[in-house]
Amino acid sequence: MTDQVAFDAIAATDHQSPGGIAHEPGELHRLLVDSIDDYAIFALDPEGYILSWNAGAHRLKGYVADEIIGQHFSVFYPPEQVKRGFPNFELREAARVGRFEDEGWRVRKDGTRFWANVVITALRDPSGGGLVGFGKVTRDLTERRRAEEILRLSEERFRLLVQGVKDYAIFMLDPAGYITTWNAGAERIKGYTEGEILGKHFSVFYTSEDLQSGKPARELEIATATGVYEEEGWRLRKDGARFWANVVITALRKPDGSLAGFAKVTRDLTDRRAAQEQAMEAARKAAASDEANRAKSEFLAAMSHELRTPLNAIGGYTELLEMGVRGPVTKEQVDDLQRIKRSQQHLLGLINDILNFSRMEAGQITYDYSTVALSSVIENVGHMIEPQAALKGIKLTFESCPPDVVAWVDKSKLDQILLNLLSNAVKFTKEGTVTLDCDWHDEQRVGISVCDTGVGIPSDELERIFEPFVQVGRSLTEGSQGTGLGLAISRDLARAMGGDITVSSEIGKGSQFRLTLPRTPST
Ligand code: ADP
Fold first, then answer.
1. What pTM does this model have?
2. Residue nearest to atom 12 of ligand 1 (CA)
3. Sheet of strand 40-44: strand arrangement
């Protein structure tokens, strides 16, 4: 409309005398055109030379009327367009069809470019129809173009970003649920390429149960009503395999509030679900095995109690007979009674060891840690074993241990380990010495060794002696009775407290057991 007014005005000016009266319509039009600031409005003669200039043209192009009137309008075009003959082409087209419109780069006086919308209108003599010139209206759309460009770039970046995302299927549905976009994650998770899936209904991802219950449509309804729908459930891949999905459907609305479609984001949680199920299964199994362990140790405790009662009776009556309370006994009978007594003692030891071992296995042993001075432990345990050693004529020595050498252990467990090592040393030594010694220590650890000059252990059996129920080289120690559990229990206890037991030995020369323990709580 404005353009038309402008052209009329331009056309009118050509037919007005310069001294026309201000209130004449032609003069008014000229004033109007001259003062329009937002549009460059000017007239060209039939060859394209500039005849008039307005405020908008000055503002847009930078020239004042005096310097531009009479020049050819191609000065506003970038050189490459002038070279192509574009300005003259525009005029020819306008002359031919009456009007030519274009958007493109134009040049200001200072050489800078701006994005212009240009309309050129052919002006014809109302009487004869001959071409008298052209009206040209130019608008500066640089800002709009920049904003459009920024928007386009940001949309493009966003599209590339979404398309490249691999961990999430991100795609769009139209209001009826047909798929309109697809990304790399969707292809990876669901297995369809973009070409295969665009235009298909999103219900292809649903299981037959879900289809029967009308779930896909329900989900869109909820998203439409509330803005968003979210759930976790089974979905189908292209090959028909199920995967556990987290699904978020968001309703997209146009500025006028009408529904534009839906954005759908799907994550494949199959691995996470499998991991959760595994963890639950492991927890179930652990609970079941805890239960089984408790039942087992209750059973063993009850059984050991039941076994101990008759065994104690056997011991008691054997002692009565041995002491001659029931009448005189011969030397042979005393020997037999002592054998019965040894077997009875052995059996009692066995029951204790089995009970201990099963508690250990079931992880039911609790540890009461404290800082323990080793010198006092060594002395105590040494005194306990002294009678046994004396009986066999074995020399028992405990090397003195500096009073400040300590270990961070459960004292009763340490006693148990040392007693076991010492009684083994005495048991497997015919004559000679047994030495108990805290032989080294550093900042973190302390070592205690139990050495004997006994029968020794075959080198290929050294590791095996720590296995439960293993007894090696019994022929070397006739009469020795054990369970083969002592070392297994001792090593487990030592390791549980952060230490260890190792052994070195030589047949016929003796053995050295080494217990290492932490000096301080581990951090
Ligand atoms: P037990 O002493 O009840 O047989 P242990 O587990 O304490 O069970 O010991 C396992 C085996 O290791 C013993 O049967 C014995 O063959 C061997 N052993 C342990 N200590 C010594 C030692 N000081 N000298 C020689 N052999 C030993």
1. 0.46
2. 465
3. 40-44, 131-140, 113-124, 99-107
Per-residue pLDDT tens digits for 455-512: 999 988 888 899 887 777 654 454 456 678 889 999 999 999 999 999 999 999 999 9
471 lines ligand 1 (CB under 6 A): yes
Residue 452 in contact with ligand 1 by CB distance below 6 A = yes
457 lines ligand 1 (CB under 6 A): yes
CB-based contact 249:229 (threshold 8 Å): yes
For residue 458, give the 3-state DSSP assignment. Answer: coil
Q: How far is residue 423's CA from residue 426's CA, in Å, rounded to a whole number?
A: 5
Q: Is 14 exposed, middle or buried (0-12, 13-18, 19+ CB in 10 A)?
A: middle
Residue 13 burial (CB count, 10 A): 19
Determine if ligand 1 sits within 6 Å of the CB of residue 483.
Answer: yes
CB distance 482 to ligand 1 below 6 Å: yes
Q: Which two tokens stand for residue 407?
A: 């270990």
Q: What is the pLDDT of residues 166-203, one digit of tens each?
A: 889 999 999 999 999 999 999 999 999 999 999 999 99
Atom of ligand 1 nearest to the CA of 488: 6
